[in-house]
Specification:
This protein has 195 residues and is mainly alpha-helical. It folds into 2 domains: 52 residues; 137 residues, no CATH class. The chain has 6 helices and 2 strands, in the order H-H-H-E-E-H-H-H. It has a two-stranded antiparallel sheet with strand order 1-2. Strand 1 and strand 2 form a beta hairpin. Helix 4 packs antiparallel against helix 5. The chain starts with a helix and ends with a helix.
């Protein structure tokens, strides 16, 4: 393999990672704008209508921690059949949130950024619109930190340790949400990052 080909390949990978990072940030900016507009619309509509809707009455309206609590059985105000419908759609949201955390850590490390404390909440774009996804702090930290460390290690033993850590965290999240564990999901994510 020639040096110029290797250099072109590395440049291409760096551009792809940068584009993924920019697209993710644009999605967050779009969600913040949307939430500001929705809150303005909601505040102007509520006084006129006089009736407030309890968000836990409709399982399609669940967002963030309320959605996580409903899926993990901590919120029992919602009927079981409604939760099962939401759970079937939630798998893709959970996978995207996991991917964002890993990719964010990996990108921060690749760009020479300092390690951050990832937030629990992220906006996930789906075909039905954006959904606020919330995950427990310990899993957010494990996934972000594993992505961060994965970018800087070439040792097989370290990569295997990080893969196990990622798998354990993903398995725990899927178990808590009562979803089937996607066995090769983490391997696909890690391979996509070039490791």
């Amino acid at each position: 393999m020639s040096v110029s080909f290797t250099l072109m390949l590395a440049t291409g990978l760096a551009i792809i990672i940068l584009l993924l990072y920019i697209i993710g940030r644009m999605g967050k900016l779009e969600e913040v704008t949307r939430s500001i507009l929705q809150s303005k619309n909601k505040s102007s509509i509520e006084p006129a209508s006089g009736n407030k809707k309890n968000p836990s009455e409709n399982s399609d309206d669940l967002q963030g921690k309320e959605l996580w609590d409903a899926l993990t059985g901590r919120n029992t105000d919602i009927e079981a059949e409604n939760i099962e419908t939401v759970r079937q759609r939630y798998e893709i949201i959970l996978k995207k949130h996991i991917q964002i955390l890993l990719q964010s850590g990996y990108s921060d490390s690749q760009s020479g950024g300092i390690k951050k404390n990832p937030g629990n909440l992220d906006s996930i774009n789906t075909l039905r619109g954006a959904v606020q996804s919330w995950l427990p702090s310990e899993h957010c930290a494990v996934l972000y930190n594993s992505g961060y460390e994965l970018a800087n290690t070439d040792e097989k033993s370290d990569q295997d340790r990080l893969r196990m850590s990622i798998d354990d965290s993903i398995a725990a999240l899927f178990d808590q949400a009562k979803l089937p564990f996607p066995g090769d999901f983490s391997q696909g994510l890690i391979s996509a990052m070039g490791k």
